[in-house]
Amino acid sequence: MTTSERTSAVEKSAAKEPARARRGSADKLGRQDWSSWPHYDAAASGFRGYWYPVTWSSHITGDPKPFTLCGEKITLIRDSGKVYALHNRCPHRGVPLSEGNQQFPGTVSCPYHGWTFDLPTGQLSAVITDGPGCRLTGKLGVRTYAVEERLGMVWVYIPVADEEPHPIDEQLPEELVSNAFVMGGRIEPRGGNWRFACENGFDEGHAKYLHRTALWRLFKPMPTWNITRIVPQGRWIYRVQDEVYWEADFPGVGRWSNKRWWKKQPPKETFNLGNTGKADTVDPVIEAQEFPGFASLSMPGVLRIAYPKFIHYEFYVPVDADNHQYVGVMVNFKQGWDTLRFYAKYLGAVRWLFHGQFSGQDAWMVDVTDAPPEKLYRPDVSLTSWRNLSEEEYGKKLAAAGVTDPAADTTETEA
Q1: What is the pLDDT of residues 130-156, one digit of tens each?
Q2: How far apart are CA 328 and CA 338, in angstroms?
Q3: Which of 25, 106, 236, 332 has the highest local Cβ count within 10 Å?
Q4: Residue 218 backbone dihedrals phi, psi, to 5 degrees
Q5: pLDDT-derived band of residue 279, with 50, 70 and 90 as boundaries?
Q6: How far is CA 40 from the centre of its chain?
Q7: Alpha helix (H) ranges present in 129-187?
């Protein structure tokens, strides 16, 4: 780092200090910190005890690849069609196993000295540079992680302790387990903490204003403000719209509206499927779910936005305190020739309009969010309800596992 870079870093750090110092002395209008949600406050690197999508299945081959998940460095490798996940650090000198390769079937070898680990168990099965009689063989190992493949993606389970993972289908949206569908999506690394991304997705207020310039919304009206309540149902919480207002007069400021002459005219009735108006027809699979509201959220950070003809899902995958992975998928419950029409529409327009420019506006806000401290307002009931849900559910998970310190690191094992 040059002298000018060090000076700039010090200046930036100093500029942030007053904000941290004000936390204890700030006025009490709105909520200041996350002390009401201690588990959530401590989950900068994510909640353990859940399955997380890491990458597309087609990206994992016989060459190991590195990933970071919930602050843990892992490597993924495929052998005989099956994907394995191991802690990405050779216990000898700390070299990443993802830099190595396969010298024997069912193993991965460190590139430095040929320490070779069994893929299913993580046990040290050979040390090439110490000969067949190496005394460490079978006595050391690296941690392994449970892996599943669903929705065309590789999922890894990050345990709280050493518990057996719950079935992954229990964590997926129910309609994706029991119905045929076609899907398109995008996985990309993004800056900002995963909690900011999750809260942005379920946030009641931002879409009406932040996305007013999105091309995805060019011809679609958006409300100016809503009266919304949060309804729990099963393991999900739903945003339910009781009142929708398309324009408003703000005293002393003026009139504001999202309506434009080139946009569709907004409906007069209140609606709770999609966010631009009531549809004439609804896909029968989506209709059968009887969602209370079009936006729903579940642990460990799975967003579902139900539209009349498709459902959009977002999975917020924790990397570390400052980065996350965005996994966005659009699902259409079609089969046969209808799948070709879906792919043509998705690849031709939806991918870059929705998962590109529209979602890019969210990525921008998540990357620049800096909280706490914070001052919340009425529509932030969506945020506080999510934090309450996560606090309650994760508390139960920790109690069931008998864990008091979920941050304990047991990634490297020795016999």
Answers
A1: 999 999 999 999 999 999 999 999 999
A2: 21
A3: 332
A4: -55, -40
A5: low
A6: 15
A7: 174-178
Question: Helices 381-401 and 194-202, interaxial angle, to 10°?
Answer: 130
The amino acid occupying position 262 is W
Is-contact 117 107, C-beta < 8 A? Answer: yes
Instruction: Classify residue 3 by burial, with Cβ atoms within 10 Å: 0-12, 13-18, 19+.
Output: exposed
What is the Cα 340 distance to its own chain's centre?
A: 28
Identity of the amino acid at 194: W
Secondary structure (DSSP) of 52-87: EEEEEGGG--SS-EEEEETTEEEEEEEETTEEEEEE
pLDDT > 90: percent of the chain: 66
Strands (DSSP E) contained in 88-206 are 107-109, 115-118, 124-127, 140-142, 144-145, 147-150, 153-158, 182-191
pLDDT in tens, 2-40: 444 444 443 444 444 433 333 333 445 556 899 999 999
Buried b (16+ CB within 10 A) or exposed e, 86-96: bbbbbbeeebb
From the CB of residue 277, how many other CB atoms can be counted at a distance below 10 Å? 20
Give me 14's structure tokens: 């100093």
Binned at pLDDT 50, 70 and 90, residue 235 comes out as: very high
**Closest CA relative to residue 302, chosen from 47, 127, 12:** 47
Cα 72 from Cα 45, distance rounded (Å)? 9
pLDDT at 352: 86
Query: What pTM does this model have?
Result: 0.87
Asked if residue 120 has a cis previous peptide bond (ω within 30° of 0), the answer is no
Rg of the chain taking only CA atoms, in angstroms: 24
Q: Is the peptide bond before 251 cis (omega within 30 degrees of 0)?
A: no
Running DSSP on this structure, what letter comes out for residue 101?
B
* Torsion, Cα of 140, 145, 148, 154 (10° steps): -100
The first and second tokens of residue 276, run together, are 């631009």
Contact residues for 3 (Cβ-Cβ < 8 A; gap 6+) = none
What is the crossing angle of helices 359-368 and 194-202, to 10°?
A: 130
Closest CA to 100 of 79, 118, 114, 121: 114
How far apart (Å, rounded) are the C-alpha atoms in residues 239 and 294?
A: 7
Higher pLDDT, 64 or 21: 64
Three-state secondary structure call for residue 97: helix
